[in-house]
């Protein structure tokens, strides 16, 4: 099995059992647009660059352009000083938030609604391509990355968590359902796919706050319960589990570039 097939197989093992989804009060697969919008606002107000920011800036010429795949509201790209940003995302709500913030900063924004790499053939090239926290949603990582490479003039920069982003939920799956979660794929497995493509990969590990939790108290409880397919009558069990083992506040991430 090659690295790309292994990546897809390992991702597939994260599927929640069908019987739990069928019994869940709401789908555990959801995204909260306010989290991505808050991340963009935090990024544009931050005074210090992250590792990913610095790596992207190094390759961005004055007045240069950025392609941001999985742009969200612009957290990965708005702060980098580009004159123009092409933002690709399947969410129209997030694209609208991205465009609004870009215009406020005097940046030309081109929103492209759709999934990558399907929209790649109609997407312009850019000096730098950035793609943050998308890899674990992509089963065919090889095709995804090839399309990034074809659109980057100077550099491609990916940021991803060192471990699967839902790994932090593993103790709760175990305590509430006696369900063991996988421990792969990891960033190392993604890097193996890149190397299989012949890419000379650079990488750096660092830590950042977890942005995908964000809430406390009842708000956090409701979000975690939904992720875990828990009905309302089991919320007290979850409350106990969270008190015994609070969710982490930061996680290790990896910046990968070539």
Task: Give a quick precis of the structure.
This protein is α/β, with parallel strands linked by helices and 258 residues long. The protein is built from 10 helices and 7 strands.
Features:
single chain; 258 residues; alpha/beta; Rossmann fold; seven-stranded mixed sheet; 7 strands; 39% helix; 19% strand; globular
Structure description:
The chain has 258 residues and is α/β, with parallel strands linked by helices. The chain has one domain: Rossmann fold (3-Layer(aba) Sandwich), CATH 3.40.50. Helices cover 39% and strands 19% of the residues. It is built from 10 helices and 7 strands. The protein has helices at 3-12, 18-23, 33-45, 51-59, 92-104, 141-151, 170-177, 187-196, 217-227, 235-244; strands spanning 65-69, 84-89, 108-113, 126-132, 152-161, 202-209, 250-257. A 7-stranded mixed beta sheet has the order 3-2-1-4-5-7-6. Helix 6 (141-151) links the parallel strand 4 and strand 5. Helix 1 runs antiparallel to helix 8, helix 7 packs across helix 10 and helix 9 crosses helix 10. The longest helix is centred in the first third of the chain and has 13 residues, at 33-45. It is globular. The two termini are 25 Å apart. The mean pLDDT is 95.
